[in-house]
Amino acid sequence: MQSGNNSLQSRRELLMRAGAGAAAITFGGASFAEGAKGQKSGIILGSGEHKYECIHDWLTPPDDILWGDTQGLCQDSAGRIYVSHTVHSGSKKNNAIVVFDKHGKYLSSWGEEFAGGGHGIEVRREGAVDGEGGEEFLYHCDTNHRKVVKTTLTGKIIWEKTTPLEPGVYDSKHAFVPTNVAFSPNGDFYISDGYGSNYIHQYNIDGNWIRTFGGTGSEGGKFRCSHGITVDHRGKEPLLLVTDRSNSRNQYLSLDGKFISFQNEKMRLPSYFSFRKDVMAVADLTAVVTLVDPKGHVIAMLGDGVPDAEPLRDHPRKDFIPGKFVHPHSVRFLQNGDILVAEWVPIGRVTLLKKLRA
């Protein structure tokens, strides 16, 4: 188990190694778009069907909140966007959850209890009948307090889960540090212990433990930083998809945890995923957002910051390079097809990749 400081150091070391190996890879060159009056209106990433205007700092908190590492993103059915961050030490408020409308306007903030550990965040509708009714809830992963918390959309706590005792895999040397949550079509949910012991824990919708699988290793079904987790619905049957970040790949498993295959084309340090139709977007901590088709082939690499932007994590914002990512940590296709990217930098950054339509 790594402490918080050791975990950050480990990530830096991994980034240095991955950056060295990826320095020669360049995709999705940037160009400037001309506005109606000939003014430069933005930076264009990608090409063809996958062309986006890059708008850095599209989401910014109010003056009394300073971003820490911006780590998690989700959007509810009403279009509200939730950002989970660690909160900067200089922030007047310790609200780790910041909420915006679909146009990027600030709405509210809360979640002081997640300060220092705001990480993965997901939204799920529960209790619907034939697709109607029900209520949406947020699932939070807090890496500092080592727990998963279910809340209402306004922050009321429903339950908290700490180290699972049922599987008998944890002791003083194997701690639990949850990073993300995924949802199965039958109502089950999965917790990924990405910064702890690399286990995946499966629960039913009532929060009762079903099984545990995974663990640390390099073979199929084992992980070195099972950071991101989701369910991929693009094939004939839904499959569990997990980042194997330190092994520079993703892994597909059955919903009961059996290894199926690797997906590693152009993966450096994959961190999280999002889907829209047949396209998967991967936030890769080594300075790029990668678009992947259902067969695992890369369609585009957007905002590739290797090697120029990769060492800039601890730099002031003025040193960030327009159109290049530093450390994408989370990615989310918005309801309108735009892509939102949150980065693992101590001063936070949330970038909109605005879909350009023919």
Strand content: 35-45%
Quickly name the level 1 CATH class: Mainly Beta
What is the third-level CATH name, the topology? Neuraminidase
Order of helices and strands: HEEEEEEEEEEEEEEEEEEEEEEEEEE
Look at the helices and sheets and give the structural class. Answer: mainly beta
The number of helical runs is 1
Question: Roughly how much helix do the residues carry, as a percent range?
Answer: under 10%
* Total strand segments: 26
**Major sheet: order of its strands?**
1-2-3-26-25-24
List segments where confidence is low: pLDDT < 50 over at least 5 consecutive residues: 1-9, 16-41
Rg, alpha carbons: 19 Å
Shape: globular
Specify the CATH homologous superfamily: TolB, C-terminal domain
- Kindly, what is the distance between the CA atoms of the first and last residues, rounded to a whole number of angstroms? 50 Å
* CATH architecture identity: 6 Propeller
Count of the separate structural domains: 1
Question: How many strands, what sense, and barrel or not for the largest sheet?
Answer: 6 strands, antiparallel
Mean pLDDT: 90
Q: Mind explaining what this structure looks like?
A:
A 6-stranded antiparallel sheet has the order 1-2-3-26-25-24, with no helix packed on it. It has a 4-stranded antiparallel sheet with strand order 4-5-6-7, with no helix packed on it. A 4-stranded antiparallel sheet has the order 8-9-10-11, with no helix packed on it. The protein has a single domain (4-355), classed as Neuraminidase, CATH 2.120.10.30. It has 1 helix and 26 strands. The chain is globular, with a radius of gyration of 19 Å. It has one helix spanning 4-22; strands spanning 31-34, 40-47, 50-55, 70-75, 81-85, 97-100, 106-110, 118-126, 135-142, 147-151, 157-161, 180-183, 189-192, 199-203, 209-214, 229-232, 239-244, 249-253, 259-263, 270-276, 279-284, 288-292, 298-302, 328-333, 339-343, 350-355. It is mainly β and 358 residues long. Residues 1-9 and 16-41 have low confidence and may be disordered.
